[in-house]
């Protein structure tokens, strides 16, 4: 009988030789040059950081010494640059009678307490002031008696300042996906600072992330027993997921697929949209486009079917997601409405009108994430003459000529001037070139598909 074939096993030396050869080959033919010592450092660290795959789904949310602590004590916290996530891989009792208090069953000889504000953006001190803290009590020999028992771990987080679609997705829904997707809906959501309109707005997402109704702890006011707990949500970056970061393996592509399945989005690639369709996001309060009627007329003349979207229409996410998905191009001034790029099909175009003083924010929050979504990004940086601030302050005022001097005064001053006071009157001749570029990208996507 033929013996089982065995694959050759190579040690680290041949592998290192092959990698060095590939580096030299790439360098010779003009590839990007990476210093050898940096490359070797990356190679070494990737070997050192390799860990045995965790047995518990909770353990995927910590690494290194934090994972070892979770495995030995049953409790650990991942404290990262942006977020804090605390885990209990042991029975906990959660009392919702007076805010939320968690009692873990760890064997602390002395009672200790930890307090965490369960919001993904820990660096945002402005938002954190509105988040209710959750107490974790370790080593209490007389915790309250259980009134309800559950078979899945609890996940506790705050709804924060809901009502702004950027913060709803960036600070809550994407971090929730990152933190709990691998549990396959087997978690029980407890929403601190519960907002019923927020839960209703995203009911479809919550129903896919958890098989249970979202709990309002203020209305519940009882003691629940869970086999484990997640307190807080993991954050990666603005409208982004990093596959190499905790818990590993998820990208923005995965989240967009999830949205497509959740809302039944019809188009996966812009080439499937027969007629070039453009959505223009109309702002009604701040950063308004003062001559939007002229813009819309120009867009129609170029051959687009134009959909004008208002904030009121966007509140119905179930319907609005499909409307955005049916569009080839999304156009709007810098603001939360551009978060809807999440629903665009691959190959579509997002055009952002960048008001004065907001170039960095435009790139950081909406422009930089677009390529990861396979969405083309075009920026239209306005001239001083297109900003209402020029009329308000004068062409040679520091607000116009030196935005850094305004930034030096702090966020409140920046917000008051560049976000709240500024409107835009677009130069139609200049902007037409940007829309023509968007149209070309859409047509090329259809030809090369």
UniProtKB/TrEMBL annotation:
Gene Ontology terms, MF aspect: pentosyltransferase activity
Keywords annotated in UniProt: Glycoprotein, Glycosyltransferase, Membrane, Transferase, Transmembrane, Transmembrane helix
Domain Glycosyltransferase 61 catalytic: 203-351
Principal subcellular localization: Golgi
Record localization: Golgi apparatus membrane
TM helices/strands, residue ranges: 7-26
Topology term for the membrane: Single-pass type II membrane protein
InterPro entries linked to this entry: Glyco_transf_61_cat, Glycosyltransferase_61
GO CC terms: Golgi membrane
Name of the protein this chain belongs to: Alpha-1,3-arabinosyltransferase XAT3
Organism (species): Sesamum alatum
């Amino acid at each position: 009988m033929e013996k089982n074939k065995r694959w050759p096993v190579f040690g680290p030396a041949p592998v290192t030789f092959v990698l060095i050869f590939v580096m030299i080959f790439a360098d010779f033919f003009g590839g990007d040059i990476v210093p050898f010592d940096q490359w070797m450092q990356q190679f070494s660290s990737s070997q050192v950081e390799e860990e045995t795959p965790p047995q518990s789904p909770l353990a995927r949310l910590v690494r290194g010494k934090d994972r070892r602590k979770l495995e030995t004590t049953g409790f650990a916290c991942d404290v990262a640059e942006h977020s804090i996530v605390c885990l209990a891989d042991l029975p906990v009792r959660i009392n919702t009678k007076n805010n939320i208090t968690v009692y873990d069953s760890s064997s602390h000889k002395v009672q200790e307490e930890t307090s965490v504000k369960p919001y993904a953006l820990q660096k945002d001190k402005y938002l954190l002031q509105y988040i209710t803290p959750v107490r974790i009590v370790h080593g209490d020999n007389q915790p309250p008696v259980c009134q309800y028992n559950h078979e899945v771990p609890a996940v506790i987080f705050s709804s924060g300042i809901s009502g702004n679609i950027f913060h709803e997705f960036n600070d809550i829904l994407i971090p929730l996906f990152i933190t709990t997707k691998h549990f396959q809906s087997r978690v029980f959501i407890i929403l601190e600072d519960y907002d019923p309109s927020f839960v209703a707005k995203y009911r479809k997402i919550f129903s896919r992330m958890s098989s249970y109704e979202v709990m309002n702890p203020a209305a519940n006011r009882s003691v629940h027993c869970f086999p484990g707990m997640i307190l807080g949500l993991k954050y990666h970056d603005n409208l982004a997921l990093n596959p190499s970061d905790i818990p590993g393996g998820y990208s923005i592509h995965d989240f967009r697929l999830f949205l497509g399945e959740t809302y039944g989005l019809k188009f996966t690639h812009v080439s499937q949209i027969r007629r070039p369709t453009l959505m223009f996001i109309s702002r009604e309060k701040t950063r308004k486009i003062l001559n939007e009627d002229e813009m819309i007329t120009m867009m129609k003349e170029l051959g687009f079917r134009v959909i004008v979207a208002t904030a009121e229409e966007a509140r119905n996410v179930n319907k609005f997601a499909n409307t955005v998905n049916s569009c080839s191009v999304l156009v709007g001034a810098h603001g939360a409405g551009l978060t809807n790029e999440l629903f665009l099909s691959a190959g579509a175009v997002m055009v952002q009108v960048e008001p004065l003083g907001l170039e960095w924010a435009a790139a950081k929050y909406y422009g930089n994430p677009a390529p990861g979504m396979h969405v083309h990004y075009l920026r239209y940086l306005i001239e001083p003459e297109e900003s209402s601030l020029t009329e308000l302050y004068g062409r040679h005022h520091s607000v116009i000529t030196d935005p850094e001097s305004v930034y030096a005064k702090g966020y409140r001053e920046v917000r008051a001037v560049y976000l709240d006071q500024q409107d835009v009157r677009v130069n139609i001749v200049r902007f037409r070139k940007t829309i023509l570029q968007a149209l070309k990208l859409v047509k090329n996507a259809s030809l090369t598909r």
